[in-house]
Amino acid sequence: MLETFDLKQDPFPMVPNGPVHNWAGRGELKDELVDLVKGVRARDIGVTEFAIVYGEYGAGKSHALQFLKTYVATNDQFNSLAIYLERPRVASKINFLEIYKYIMRDIGKDAIRDCCKKLKTIYQSIVDQKVAGTGYQIKDQSSFHDPAMTEFAEPDRAMINLLLVGAEKFDAVYSYLTGEGKYDLEGLAPKIDSDFVAAKVLGQFFRVITADYKDKERIYESVYLFVDECEILIDVKASESELLFTGFRELINELPYRFSLLLSFSAATALIEAIMPIHLLKRMTRPYIEVGPLDDQHAREFIKSQMNFYRTENSPYVDTFYPFSNEAMDDIIGHMVDLTPRNIFIQCKRVLERSIRKYELKKGEEISAEMANRILENYR
């Protein structure tokens, strides 16, 4: 049906945590955030970034974080992990252990299994070199394990040993990494059952999968953690928020390179500083990043880019609002109190669907301002 109007599919998808391909808002803010995530990559500067995005409720912070997550996950110039949390409460209790478990489940079995296999390949190439250096063909290479491990950074060896086991006995290792089971291995806690251990293990895991190995070989270039709606921490017990903030601090301490933590607050900076411990504030790598509300022009640009993304190939309607008339779009935007990406999607979707189903809009016809106003008058 939508192909009649040169659209491959619904240009206003209301999918929670779904991919966000188009930026909404000031271009300068987009450039700043894209520079931030690019700088974390190993091929770039490879720094660790910890920043806070803030602004009024509905200003578009969630959209910005989901845009960055999609940008990292779908861009060929990134070979990176990007994790988005809709809010810091992922279970009935707020603590870092629950965040850790959520992150591991979000990364998923297949990706973790792939990390184990890739690390085993890197390790085996080092062992093969050691064996070749003897000038002999040796079938039992177990005696070369310790010499091969000296090629890895000492703080990483326990996690490397765990992932090497995972290449052969994956289920046991995956159970341990998700906090479900125990595993006895020197240098690691037997079970991930506390905030401190969770932060420590997560830091070790991220560090190992982003480290430089032989010939600059690495599993991932960088890891990104985007945590939205952190303003809910304002209303929880201080003891709960402290557990989470301490976990973030320990995670940053474990990851001096190739890691980005971006937190989002619908709150003023003074209120953020009232609840966030000084030990975490001192680790911020950038000043607070403000996301302001959309104005009418930014809203128009966003809608146009969104519709362009879903246009059929060779459509003559690129860079237009078709099947919306310019006047209809002016009416929709002009009557909106909160110009947020979500609200824009809701209103445009209502008008588009009702125009087609109730008013039987035909190919080549445009939605007039009168029709848009008639459809939305009960929602204003």
Summarize the model shown:
With 380 residues, the protein is of the alpha/beta class. The protein has helices spanning 27-40, 61-74, 96-107, 109-132, 145-149, 157-166, 170-177, 195-210, 238-254, 269-275, 278-281, 296-309, 326-334, 341-357, 369-376; strands spanning 48-54, 80-85, 222-227, 259-265, 289-290.
Give an account of the 3D structure.
The chain is an alpha/beta fold and 380 residues long. The protein is 47% helix and 7% strand. The protein contains 15 helices and 5 strands. Strands 2-3-4-1-5 form a 5-stranded parallel beta sheet, with helices on both faces. The chain is elongated and about 85 Å long. The two termini are 28 Å apart. The model has no long low-confidence stretch (mean pLDDT 93).
